[in-house]
Amino acid sequence: MIIVDPKSVVILIRGGTELIIDEADRAIHDALCVVRDVVEDQKIVGGGGAPEIEAAIQLRKYAQTLGGREQLAVEVFADSLDIVPKTLAENAGLDQIDVLMKLRASHQAGNKFAGTDLETGNVVENMMLAGVIEPTVVKIQAIKSSTEAASMILRIDDVIAGAKSAMPPGGMPPGMGGMPPGMGGMGGMPPGMM
């Protein structure tokens, strides 16, 4: 008996070792999540570093309209997007700089969907037509999450820098005082503990 519209499906995974089974389980889970994201959002972008390179190029153009710190911040953000195609190239054993230069040249020539073929290292002019696609929602979430993480690190750095400037030289911050009353003369660490 064949059920036309099942409510659930079981995938049986077999392998030689527990490690192989766990890896296959993770790969299937990841693939199913990608399919779910595409079905729910119904928007896709090309893979192979195409959206990151295009966004970086557009951000660099925008940075030229700014001045001062804002320009530097936008340029650094654009540089951070280059990490995706660089990492893809590195993981494929390709020259990162060569891949980045080829991608930038292709995008600046108007190929907005150009990405890297990780087997050959060559530029594919349209990753969408080549069938190398990713859900847009995944790209958006990755950029949001990494931006939030970087912002949080910068805020923590500001707090630490602010706390250091508030401390008097060689002492504790104001209002910290010394030991509470009755704590003096405790003798420190027991013998043999140092």
Automatic annotation (TrEMBL):
<dbReference type="GO" id="GO:0140662">
    <property type="term" value="F:ATP-dependent protein folding chaperone"/>
</dbReference>
<protein>
    <recommendedName>
        <fullName>Thermosome subunit</fullName>
    </recommendedName>
</protein>
<dbReference type="Pfam" id="PF00118">
    <property type="entry name" value="Cpn60_TCP1"/>
</dbReference>
<keyword id="KW-0547">Nucleotide-binding</keyword>
<keyword id="KW-0143">Chaperone</keyword>
<dbReference type="GO" id="GO:0005524">
    <property type="term" value="F:ATP binding"/>
</dbReference>
<dbReference type="InterPro" id="IPR027413">
    <property type="entry name" value="GROEL-like_equatorial_sf"/>
</dbReference>
<dbReference type="InterPro" id="IPR002423">
    <property type="entry name" value="Cpn60/GroEL/TCP-1"/>
</dbReference>
<dbReference type="InterPro" id="IPR027410">
    <property type="entry name" value="TCP-1-like_intermed_sf"/>
</dbReference>
<dbReference type="InterPro" id="IPR017998">
    <property type="entry name" value="Chaperone_TCP-1"/>
</dbReference>
<keyword id="KW-0067">ATP-binding</keyword>
